Amino acid sequence: MANTFKCIGLIGKYADSTVLGTIKILSDYLKGRQLEVILDESTAQLLPGHGLKTASRAAIGASCDLAIVIGGDGTLLNAARSLISYEICLLGINQGRLGFLADISPHDMIQKLDSILQGIYLEEQRIMLHARIERAGQCISESDALNDVAVHKWNVARMIEVQTYINGQFVHTHRSDGIIVSTPTGSTAYALSSGGPILHPALNAIVLVPVSPHTMSNRPIVVDGDSQIEIIVKDSNQSHAQVTCDGQINLSLASGDIIKVRKKDQRVRLIHPADHDHYKILRAKLHWGGEL
């Protein structure tokens, strides 16, 4: 039986032994189909005596044409950021809670993989953001995000004040707990909990969502995905603002810092089973009404 993918990387949730059973089943299944299997080196530390080839995340990106990510959406977000520079496809096995991105259950993964490896699947290309922090004209830090880039307060009850520009045009100054710059993928994450709209993942769009704004007339704004966004920290207190990318990478801020956010040139290639239904997932995860 022909396989669409020839070399497959396995990436498990960091330092979580609960994924090891699934990884063992997957590796045995893939080797049984005469596929090359490479285990992420951080995952390999949890599985001594596994007998698989191991490699860095970069080597997996360069060598494999598919990475199977075992964990939750957070694990897939991490994998997407580390592999965005490669053409590799990502497939998520959900052992987390929500499963918007990692949407295959361990209980039916073999059945789903039978079809996927025969080329029967759906592929989505999701946009990713790049955030760059500038201080006095110099870049002091940068990172990518598949879900969102959030400028927010931390550790104190005070609001922060920021100015926002889109494509060089001034939008507003507002005081709030922060502002979220989200992709369509991230519109069902932090942005949704802050009152933002749900964007279809195929859209080339970015949504800006204020977090608990002081003035209730500050509402979410959806802009073209090719927009260049700048957020300037205006608060005089330099100790309680930071940037968070995908809720996982934290970058500290000082008054006057400029956060520049844009879409990356590369897109994330996300694989789903052929029967994938985005709205069915929304109904299930957000507890909307059932079938008519």
**Net shape:** globular
Helical element count?
7
- Give the C-alpha Rg: 20 Å
CATH superfamily placement of the largest domain? Probable inorganic polyphosphate/atp-NAD kinase, domain 1
Helix content: 10-25%
Task: Tell me the fraction of residues in β-strands, as a range.
Answer: 35-45%
User: What number of structural domains do the residues give?
Assistant: 2
CATH classification class of the largest domain? Alpha Beta
Low-confidence stretches: none
Mean of all residue-level pLDDT scores? 92
Strand order of the largest sheet: 3-2-1-4-5-19-6
Could you spell the SSE succession in H and E letters? EHEHEHEHEHEEEEEEEHEEEEEEEH
At the fold tier of CATH, the topology name of the largest domain is: Rossmann fold
Biggest sheet descriptor: 7 strands, mixed
Sheet/helix structural class: alpha+beta
Count all strands and give the number: 19
Tell me which CATH architecture of the largest domain applies here.
3-Layer(aba) Sandwich
Distance between the termini: 40 Å
